[in-house]
Amino acid sequence: MLPVYLATAYLAPVQYYTKLFRFADVRIETCENYLKQTYRNRCTIAAANGTLSLSIPIVKPDTPKCLTKDIRISDHGNWRHLHWNALVSAYNLSPFFEYYEDDFAPFYRRRYNFLFDFNNELLQTVCRLLDMEPRISLTEEYRPDLPNDFRETIRPKHEGTDTTFFPQPYHQVFRDKHGFLPNLSIIDLLFNMGPEAVLILRDSYSYK
Asked: What are the sequence ranges of the domains in the chain?
């Protein structure tokens, strides 16, 4: 089977993890120029008032173009504290929050210099908790027009462009209030469904 190509992402959405479930060989892009307003530095969760976007502040590059792997995290705004408090507030009543809390809390206490390293370690943690073992490697050069290329397909406001993704509903803490909110961060699926999260990933990928 050909590999799948993905961009780095901060607690990526369910759509992203359907590819990690489906493909045994995963290539994470390291040689692209950084793009704003993507999942590279933000995720979306379900909060009491609806969807909530959490963005990691970055250090503005010195040049107009900068490789994503060279993007540094800024300490501006005490974002680690704010993000963790938002996650606790949103999911402390979810069925599996206490079960996974200790796996994620350290990410919001330790300082990471580079966004790519932070995202990659979160990715490895999520795969371990989901009991998924894709072979993940990093690209060594940027190549356009690749098969199974989801580097730019999986991004905010691009819903519907991925014909392999059909989000399946599952229990969410605020579903009675807001209805089912599809394609949130993988952390939403994990905290709400626990080990059964992989079944949602399986059923949300179309093999047609």
From this structure: 4-203
